[in-house]
Structures are given as structure tokens and as C-alpha cells.
Write a structure and sequence with these properties.
Blueprint: H1 3-25, E1 28-39, E2 42-43, E3 53-56, E4 58-72, E5 76-93, E6 102-108, E7 111-116, E8 122-137, E9 152-168, E10 171-183, E11 196-209
Antiparallel strand pairs: 1-4, 1-11, 2-3, 3-5, 4-5, 5-6, 5-7, 6-8, 7-8, 8-9, 9-10, 10-11
Length: about 210
């Protein structure tokens, strides 16, 4: 090995050790993301009706996520996390006047996250958790009239995947997709025969490690 290559190898090793040392000091992280929530369509039990479905738009959503390092090595790490997702406006559509014009929702799902290669520049991860959510409905039905549905709390199961890319010192970019599997909003005029729905959040943002 030439002297130049040897020096490059030494510098690379020192840099890697420096990244690992910094990562060991960074026990906490705070992330902010923006994206969209996609909600699974639900069929309405309505014989002979035209377009008997509850269809949802793509609600603009913000997510905040706090995480705390628990244990790990250079190859993997386990963290506890608390993601909070706020969907500002989930528009609704249907062939029947049985749903409101839309609703707002939030989900809080404490859980755990498993990262691969946490001390490198690129680290993929998976997440699971569970918690609570709330749906707050608009007061008007889709085609006019008062909505009889009420705001409601729900239990939520969360599963997600993501990728963190270190860009500068204590900051990373994050892209992620999470499924918040929740109960359905309270639509008394729209009987679906189901009790659960998928809320898929897809977003990107910045992570601060500290």
C-alpha cells in the first residue's frame, strides 16, 4: 500500500470513529415532517345505491417525533419514540349524502424503532407502536344538512418504515411511511360493516440529534 493510500485509510478510519463517537453522545432526537395522509376507501352497505363508498382525499399532515436511544451497536440500534401526526383536513366524497364534507384527526403512538447502521450516513429503520387518536368532523353533510356524526377517540396501531440520511453534523433528512391503523370515524348514516381503517402517512422532513 502506498503512503498516500495509507494516509487516506487512516483518515477514513478516524472519521468513522468520530461519527460513531458523536452518535454515541446523541441520545435524543427531534424530527419534524410534512406530508399527506391517504385513507382506505370503505364500502357503504346500501343496496342499489350509486357510488356506495366513503372515499377520502389526501389530507395535509404534519408529524413531530421525539425519540430516545435505548441500546445498540455500530450495526443496529433500538430507540423508544413518540410520533404525533396531525391531519388538518381530510376531504370526503360519496354518492350518498351520508358523510360530512371532511374531518381532522391526530394520532399519538408511542413505540420502538429499530435502525440498521445507525452510525453511518444512511440508516434505514422500521417502527411499531400503539396509542390513541381522535377524529373531529365537520358540522355539515357533503350535500347539505346537519351532520349527526360526533367527534370520537380511537385506539391506534402504528407500523412504519423510513430512511435517515445525515447531511450536516447533528442534522439528518428523513423520508418515511407510516400506517396508523385506527377505528373508523363516527358516520352513523354510512354503515360500512367494518370497524377499522388504514391511514397511510407519507412524508419527509428534518431530524435534529442531540
Amino acid at each position: 500500500m502506498s503512503g498516500k493510500r495509507f494516509c487516506i485509510a487512516i483518515l477514513a478510519a478516524v472519521s468513522a470513529l468520530g461519527v460513531f463517537a458523536n452518535a454515541q453522545d446523541e441520545k435524543n432526537e427531534l424530527a419534524g415532517l410534512a406530508g399527506r395522509t391517504f385513507v382506505s376507501d370503505q364500502g357503504i352497505q346500501c343496496g342499489g345505491c350509486i357510488n356506495p363508498f366513503v372515499r377520502s382525499g389526501k389530507g395535509f399532515t404534519l408529524e413531530a417525533d421525539y425519540a430516545r436511544y435505548l441500546r445498540g451497536t455500530q450495526l443496529w440500534s433500538l430507540s423508544g419514540e413518540v410520533p404525533f401526526a396531525l391531519n388538518f383536513d381530510q376531504d370526503l366524497n360519496s354518492g350518498q349524502n351520508v358523510v360530512p364534507t371532511g374531518y381532522r384527526s391526530f394520532f399519538v403512538t408511542p413505540g420502538v424503532r429499530f435502525n440498521v447502521f445507525p452510525t453511518t450516513a444512511i440508516s434505514p429503520w422500521v417502527s411499531v407502536g400503539g396509542g390513541l387518536g381522535r377524529f373531529s368532523q365537520d358540522k355539515q353533510l357533503l350535500y347539505g344538512g346537519t351532520n349527526p356524526g360526533k367527534s370520537a377517540m380511537t385506539g391506534v396501531f402504528e407500523a412504519g418504515i423510513g430512511l435517515d440520511v445525515r447531511i450536516w453534523r447533528r442534522y439528518s433528512l428523513r423520508g418515511e411511511a407510516r400506517d396508523f391503523w385506527s377505528g373508523e370515524p363516527n358516520f352513523p348514516l354510512a354503515t360500512t360493516g367494518k370497524s377499522r381503517e388504514h391511514n397511510f402517512f407519507v412524508g419527509a422532513g428534518v431530524v435534529w440529534h442531540f
